[in-house]
Amino acid sequence: MIKSAFGATLAIALALATLAASAQAQGNAAAQGAQTLPLTPRQVEGPYYPTQKLTDRDNDLTRVGAGAAAQGQALSLSGRLVDERNTPIPSARIEIWQTDHRGIYMHPNDAGTAGRDRNFQFYGEANTDEAGRFSFRTILPGIYGTRPRHIHVKIVPAKGPGLTTQLYFRGDERLSTDGIVRRLGADIAALLLVPVQRSPNEQAAEVTFVLPGN
Ligand SMILES: [Fe+2]
Known about the structure:
This protein is of the alpha+beta class. The protein has two helices and nine strands; from the N terminus they run αββββββαβββ. The protein has a five-stranded mixed beta sheet, with no helix packed on it. A four-stranded mixed beta sheet has the order 4-1-9-8, with no helix packed on it. The longest helix is centred in the N-terminal third of the chain and has 33 residues. It starts with a helix and ends with a strand.
């Protein structure tokens, strides 16, 4: 009798625990469903999107073909492309373009372009994999004019509208006086890279881009 009462109590306790776990799981699912990631802010394309792309337009901008290494601090840039629900977006083309270590673009609008580092690739492309991941190897861009260091980005998904924006570096003193950055307000946070030193001449930084889901 005691055994049986105990058994019944245990069964009720187990049933209650199962119900509680189930309710919690549903709660978590609801919370996840409701929680959306902020979309990556758009920024102007600027006057230096390449008019002519080199034959070598892969995701390693630190050299052109089998040429010598570009000058400057190497930067490994890796990231993910997801929608607001954190679902990976595969098969999107990520394009980046930027200056060499001295702040010169490969572009006719840049008066100094003839003196650019010809070992630097200036523009590269990467495609997102099934996990939405992509990576580049580039250099820390140089500065020009009054602008902070930045890397231009264009995201071209397999379907739906794309996005053009720019990446910056946390701690850059020029961020507070740059008109393009100031228009972002607090949204700048999503575009700030925080490089960590990986070896004496290589830094690494990560970014997540968020596009509207289809
Ligand atoms: Fe620029």
